[in-house]
Amino acid sequence: MTRFRGSRISGDEIADERLVEWRNPMMSELLLGIAAAVALLGLSLLAWRQWRGRREAIALLRDEAKRREVAEEALRHAQKLEAIGRLTRGIAHDINNHLTVISSNIELAQRRLPTDSISLRRFTDAAMAGVQRAAALTHRLLAFSRQQPLDPEPLDLGRLVTNATDLLRHILGEDIAVETVLADGLWRTRVDANQLENVLLNLAVNARDAMPNGGRLTIETANTWLDKAPAAARAKACCGQYVLLAVTDTGARSAPDSGGDAAAGLGLSMVQDFVRQSGGHVTLDNTPGTGVTVRLYLPRFGGDAEDRSASPAAVTPGRRGSSRTILVVEDDEHVRRSSVEALRDMGYEVLEAGDAMEAVRLIVDQGGIDLLFTDVGLPGGVSGHVLADAARRAQPGLRVLFATGYARASGQVQGTQFIAKPFSLAALAAKIREVMTEPDSTAPTRVES
Fold it and tell me: Is residue 175 scored above 80 in pLDDT?
């Protein structure tokens, strides 16, 4: 037994004390190892989170770069289309001016032909038919650039679809079958026929692109009534009677849900713009496995049909117009001369001006002008709209008729109308008579159509 200053410690106590001394370092090392493991785990988690964050950041940067590339490509494409549109508008405007000169002089020559000059009249009729075909071509060019004025007329939709079907078959090819389902007793609508043909062509081309391996295109017409039922709500339409034009294909494409905005496809925004301007509505249904159906609801027209096939002599005012004075404003000398000659041949007193300033001086100095017949585009930065405002301030109650080769009908002065170039003398005579007899409107307020 070992003694320590009066105390006794047994051997067992010494052994226990040594065991404790041995266990303490072991426990310390264990605790240190656990702490190191926890720290290592924390560092690993932190590194993983940083790696994941960098990966997500890289993915976001890649997505952003891709979106920027797509946006830049869309911008370049839009700029190209705008440049093509400006070029198209300029070319069509010049062609329409030339066609106006040609058509006016052909009609003036026809009026002076002896009644027995059958062969000469056949030649002039052929020349006029060529002018009309060229005018239809420029109208389509302007429809492409969306700068043509709408020229609505009462229309048999079934006849338009029938006439367009053969053309569509040639365009779509043999792999796509074109079927028509035309309703009997179809109501008439009042729209721009050339524009509606372009709409139908646009929808057919979209359908062809969605059916690369072939398919079927179905064109249907029907009379329909939209009330407060879900159909009207889907079309965002006013209640009433409509003529329906439905175009269905068997292709598949990305599109909104049933009843969505029809502007979601290539070129379909143009379709929607035209239908809305015509007072109608558009819906689009995309049913998986069955294809896409675009429905155009065009308002029913209940008025009398307009006879646009009347001969020039049938609508010419003759010498009855001699008490009326018309001021013609046109910077193209040949177009102005043809218009002045035609109006004088109709029996009107005619004054002429080559620009807006000269026109205003004539209105202020002479007065007594019944109608201002002016081109929309004039030199010197003063448009026909600005001229009309100034002319009406100088002479309240002045009627205004715009001649336009390409401009939209929007922004025109309230109470005025327009006629599209090239115009026939019959159309010009009828339009002047219409403007002369319309209610007086002196307010120069601008409106958007």
Answer: yes
Only one residue has tokens 């496995």, namely 289
Structure tokens at 121: 């009249």
The DSSP element (H or E) to which 395 belongs, if any, is none
Token pair of 126, please?
């052929």
- Antiparallel, parallel or unpaired: β 417-420 and 240-249: unpaired
Beta-bridge mates of residue 220 = 181, 246
On the question of pLDDT at 203 being above 70, the answer is yes
Q: Which residues contact 258 (CB under 8 A, 6 or more apart)?
A: 234, 284, 285, 286, 287
Q: In terms of Cα–Cα distance, which of 373, 332, 376 is closest to 349? A: 373
Give the burial class of 122: count Cβ atoms within 10 A of its Cβ; 0-12 exposed, 13-18 middle, 19 or more buried: exposed
| Cα gap 141→4, rounded to integer Å | 120
Q: Convert the pLDDT of each residue in 60-108 to its tens digit.
A: 888 888 888 888 887 887 777 677 777 777 787 788 888 888 988 888 8
Q: Strand, helix or coil at 300?
A: strand
The answer to whether 176 and 215 have CB atoms below 8 angstroms apart is: yes
pLDDT at site 181: 93
Q: What is the DSSP letter of 330?
A: -
The whole model's pTM is what?
A: 0.51
- Give the C-alpha separation, 189 to 155, whole Å: 5
